[in-house]
Amino acid sequence: MRDVEARRERAAAARRARRLRPAGSDDLGLRRGFAGKLLPFLVAAMAFLASLALAGAIAAAGFSRQWQQGPAAALTIQVPNPSAKATDAPQSRLDRVVALLRGSPGIAQVRALSHAEIQKLLQPWLGSGATDGLALPAVVAVRERDGGPALGVVTAELQAAAPGTLVDSHGDWTRRIATLAHSIQALAWAMLALVMGVATAVVTIATRAGLVQRRDAVLLVHGLGATDGDIARRFAARATRLAFLGGFGGTVAALPVLGILAALAAPIVGGIADPAAWMPSLPRGLWVGLVAIPVICAGIGFATAQVTVRAWLRPLP
Amino acid sequence: MNTAVVRLDGVALEVGAQRVLRDISLGIPRGGFRWLLGPSGAGKTSLLRLLHLEVRPSEGRMELLGRDIGAAPRAALPQLRRRIGMVFQDFRLLPHLSAFDNVALPLRLAGRPEGQVQADVGEMLAWVGLRARTHCHPAELSGGEQQRVAIARAVINRPDLLLADEPTGNLDDAQAQRLMLLLGELSRLGTTIVVATHNDLIVARHPAPALRLATGRLVSADA
Asked: In what order do the strands lie in the sheet with B59-64?
């Protein structure tokens, strides 16, 4: 027994001897002197805002994509009573409309939407399943050829062949929605940049306050031969840790808010409306961003503390 | 030829608009011991700060440990500082660290393995009679004990140059004698030593060459 204990003792002594510094050593007293509570709290607030801004940017990008590329973005033509006979040809009204559109030089692409697609288009407004039993018009999605002749000429022909056909040109308002989505996106990125700027300022102020508070200790170790790098590393280690904790806390705090927003937005974007299943409904890009936020906070803490401490030390000989 | 560890040639130091040292020229060889004497305000502490590389000379040429300090890049100074031990008049112990950790600071900054740190610091604290006070913080120590910790920290690294500002100010006679024995031993082993003091008694008991300052000028320097 005594042998085992002695061996253990020797092994522990050898481990201690190999180690350069005792675990948790804090020569400069930074644990007490460096904004232990305030910094993580402020960084958490920034991370919370950054999470929302990031979600805003990604959501706006998604909306914009959906409005520009989805069926909603195309020119749509509604043909009421689609299976009735056309007035000027022995075809159904829908087939006649499609044929006329295909023959028009200004039109690049024509596609009659399936029943399921029509339902999906109506879902944000009527809810799922609400269209069952309704006499829905057929919807034909059309893409105009850039620089082609205006649709006005075809419209008259369509009216003659299938009276009551409605040409819905979404161009103007999809463009407006796209512009709005782009503006929201730009705003969200600007907010993200601003939040990162404020986080940098917060770490700078906290580091300077720490330097002032631990001035004597910093000057002493400088006099004992510590390099700028030695001192900056100690501050940066502390700032990195505090900023990471703050970033993690702020991002976690934002998750329920993002979940609620995602659940609210789900019916509009055609996603999952069940609030219990909000987690998978957040876009993958947002998840990646949310994981990155604490890491970026830690990076800001590290880099800012390094730069601030080195700048503070530079006037010393 | 005995290489000078400290060589000053026409050195002046300005602090703000005030010139606190002027036209100082001196040389101290390796292993040399010098008393630094003079009335309060003569510039003793300023000269020690200069030799401790806390400030660079405003004028003149200063060579320390073989380096021209005026020409040395800033990045070279930390390595030089690690070879200089300093006992401050006000001790400058870090209040949040134990006596052990205060003494261990220079070794840890130099990246010594913790095993060596434990052994060296333990031995040094025993030598200055503070083995029982190893884990006490400065606030728990008397003035004399704090001064002994400061001395232990200054010599733990076996510096090439040891500077001391009134190192016996808070020591009783026996402790002061012990300190002088230690300094004598270090000097014999090759450490260059400069001790600023007002204590005429101790200077009389330990005769050695002296640098005498008055109003920022070197008025005499024994060879």
From this structure: B18-29, B4-15, B59-64, B67-68
